[in-house]
């Protein structure tokens, strides 16, 4: 077995930024925007914060994807021959695709809200009775998506933990023997 510290760190640090940033944004940034005294500034303040975070988030996602690809390449033998690793790798790939789609859709909704400018709102993702209907619909969609992104990226953290457990020498041996026995 060889060490893959750099790619593993890229995987983990990128995923930590993606998960942590999305969770902090949902709880902290969107929550704090509702505390701005001028209702017409609340949405704008949330958008300014998300616009500042977007390049960092993109970099974190890219670093995670490079690390994930590197880890998959260095573990291709285990993926092929250790029972359970291929299935968990497929599940992780599906979760990654879902997280990417949810993040892209959230960013699209955020850009729509950014274009809305200064409109009255209860918060970044909470319309009030004076919020224009199209903006309110977008806010309501983003209110759901703000929890989906950390939910799916959190599931990726769990999958990374599972993959770490599957690399224990006893697990590798057990998985290879099970694969051979099932053929």
Explain this structure.
It comes from Planobispora rosea. This is ABC-type Mn/Zn transport systems, ATPase component. Keywords: Membrane, Transmembrane, Transmembrane helix. The protein has 183 residues and is mainly alpha-helical. The chain has one domain. The chain contains 6 helices and no strands. The protein is elongated and about 65 Å long. The two termini are 25 Å apart. The mean pLDDT is 93.
Task: Provide key terms for this protein.
6 helices; single chain; mainly alpha; membrane; 183 residues
Structure summarized in a few sentences:
The chain has 183 residues and is mostly helical. It has helices at residues 5-33, 39-74, 76-81, 85-116, 133-166, 169-182.
Topology:
Elements: H1 5-33, H2 39-74, H3 76-81, H4 85-116, H5 133-166, H6 169-182
The whole-angstrom Rg is: 20 Å
% residues in beta strands: under 5%
**Helicity range:** over 70%
Q: What number of domains?
A: 1
Count of β-strands: 0
Organism: Planobispora rosea
Protein name: ABC-type Mn/Zn transport systems, ATPase component
Transmembrane segments: 12-33
Keywords: Membrane, Transmembrane, Transmembrane helix
């Amino acid at each position: 077995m060889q060490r893959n510290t750099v790619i593993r760190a890229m995987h983990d640090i990128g995923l930590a930024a993606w998960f942590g940033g999305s969770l902090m944004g949902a709880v902290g940034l969107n929550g704090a925007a509702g505390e701005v005294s001028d209702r017409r500034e609340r949405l704008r303040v949330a958008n300014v914060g998300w616009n500042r975070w977007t390049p960092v988030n993109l970099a974190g996602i890219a670093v995670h994807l490079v690390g994930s690809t590197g880890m998959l390449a260095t573990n291709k033998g285990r993926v092929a021959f250790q029972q359970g690793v291929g299935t968990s790798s497929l599940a992780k790939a599906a979760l990654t695709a879902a997280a990417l789609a949810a993040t892209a859709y959230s960013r699209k909704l955020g850009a729509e809200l950014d274009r809305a400018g200064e409109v009255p709102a209860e918060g970044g993702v909470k319309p009030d009775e004076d919020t224009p209907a199209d903006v309110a619909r977008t806010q309501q969609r983003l209110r759901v998506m703000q929890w989906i992104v950390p939910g799916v990226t959190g599931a990726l953290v769990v999958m990374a933990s599972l993959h770490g457990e599957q690399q224990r020498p006893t697990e590798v041996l057990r998985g290879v023997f099970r694969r051979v026995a099932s053929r």
